[in-house]
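Appendix B. Raw example, untouched.
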Amino acid sequence: MYNQTAVAAVAPRNRFLISDDQIESNREAYTMGFNYNYAELFCEKILNPIREVWYRAKFVGFENFPQRNNPDSPLIFATNHSGMAFPWDAIAFISRGIEKLKNSASSIRALISPMLTKFPNMCPYMIDGLWWKAGCINATFLNFETGMKFNQSNILIFPEGIEGIGKGFDKKYQFQPFKTSFLRMSIRYKTDIIPFYTINGEYNNPLAYNIKPLTKLCKKIGLPFFPLGPVIFLAIFQPWIFYASLPSQLTFVLGERIKVYEMTNKPYDELTQKDLKTIGETIRMQMQQKLTELSHQYGSKYYNLRSLLKAMWTNKRHFFRYFPAFWPLSMTYFDVNYKECDGKGSIKFSLKNCFKTIFKRPIVLAMYLPVLGWLFIALKSYFMLRRRRQQNQNL
């Protein structure tokens, strides 16, 4: 398995001044592991039913998809992160992009926290490499700059970082301080930032809070935070619940372009962190005002049970694809059977192939095993992590 962490380790000493040679040598980190055919079929068979039925996702303002102001540089899409849960809000948005934009320069690839790819238990249902195969990229500065220079797709970032998704329900719809890398890229490549606002993602795992001492302990075992709340106690008895979320009706609202390169007169190589943080705070306050306004406009019916029941009834024949209890099996089923058919033809669900999937990936049964299932998940994660470390040592 290709390891992006090993490639990222060659990042330059001054990470804000990256040469063309360093970008060229890092191209592998941007291409290896990504399988567009896999991602497209995964969306069609698995994610689209989840997005359309479970989340009933709405896209406001995306009728005319944003075009690049600078044809030579990708647009940078930026949004709020939320939920104290797995990033299903981002997954729903990306799946729509893959469905509508196909494999074009207008497509979008997401920069994600390296913690999601480093620890096996942070990959959905322990499906090894799923983040990379679906097009995600480790969020390092070198990878970001490679994506800008490589120019094969637009880029999605979460300016709050992991603090955004782990901020807790008491801070819902409150932007956390922004990172500065996306501001640097916008200025260096004279490309626009396209903000959009994710509404109702806060209710994927409601009443969950971030207890700092507990979070500090969890980071040592591969969890970016511990979402302490009602749902997490259910996950003790059914581990799959840890990876799933409640059926909040997600709404994505397109915002107005931000031209960061017009907000400073300094050359790129003279910008200081203080300069960037000042600009970032100005943008954060502007986006915060808009997010607050949109949360009142679109967030009053965050579950909308009537529309959920209607969507479930209309799509009842796809029940095994969109209902969360079946996500571990359906996603693992796809991964196993895609490899066997090499992505050719359609992947059909059958009882025979279900047994075959369980035989090849018995860890999927642990997702449904009360209490004891967590022991098997922990052991599987440990051995996978140890194998990766051994592979890195042999490079």
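End of appendix B.
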